[in-house]
Write a structure and sequence with these properties.
By secondary structure, the chain is of the alpha+beta class. It has 5 helices and 11 strands; from the N terminus they run αααββαββαβββββββ.
Length: 211
């Protein structure tokens, strides 16, 4: 059945809340999130959505509003498609970094959404020059996949002693040691017991802004 704009807004808010928190919002959280002054208005919209089959309520739970599985699946798929399109930029061929070559237009789209899809990704701004030989410079932005599943030689975000983070290549050494290797010949590696190092993510990409 058709939804009014306000009903769709409320339904999408609930779906987003469930995805973010893992449980349904309360009526008060719905009202705050949508700027509604009256809980009665929230109740009215939820009742209408329930009658249309988009919501179900369990009366023995305080957070009782559940989005229908079919709508939740469609909403997530649509959001993923929209997010992927938002991260698409034109790919217009190749550029020579040596001898100039003739350019032939090749209309394609480069999708950054493909890079981050199905991954939990965050960005950090680089401070310092310990990774310059890997072409990661002070002021660059790095995209990091939040994971602890890394291999020898991966560039990782490492938390040392629970207080300081650093971007380095990681190597797992004998006797339970970890070597955090800078990409700068003037700097020494950091060698620590594994118990003092927590991997917080793995490098996916480097972004550099010139203007």
């Amino acid at each position: 059945m058709a939804l009014t704009p306000r009903q769709k807004q409320l339904l999408d808010f609930i779906a987003d809340f469930i995805d973010e928190h893992g449980y349904s919002p309360s009526y008060e959280e719905i009202a705050r999130g949508l700027g509604l002054a009256s809980l009665a208005t929230v109740h009215k919209h939820i009742q209408a959505l329930e009658q249309k089959g988009y919501l179900a309520r369990a009366f023995n739970r305080s957070r009782s509003v559940d989005v229908s599985p079919a709508y939740l699946e469609r909403y997530r798929a649509q959001r993923q498609r929209t997010g992927a399109r938002a991260l698409e930029i034109p790919l217009e061929g190749r550029i020579a970094a040596g001898t100039p070559v003739e350019v032939y237009p090749q209309p394609e789209m480069l999708s950054l959404g493909e890079l981050v899809r199905d991954r939990e990704v965050y960005a950090l701004r680089v401070w310092g020059d310990s990774m310059v030989d890997d072409h990661i410079l002070d002021g660059d932005y790095v995209l990091i996949e939040r994971t602890q599943d890394v291999r020898n030689g991966d560039v990782v975000v490492a938390l040392v002693d629970g207080t300081e983070t650093t971007l380095k290549r990681i190597y797992f050494e004998p006797q339970g040691m970890v070597r955090l290797q800078p990409a700068n010949v003037s700097m020494r590696p950091i060698v620590l017991p594994r118990s003092r190092v927590q991997v917080q993510g793995r490098l996916l990409a480097v972004l550099r802004r010139y203007h």
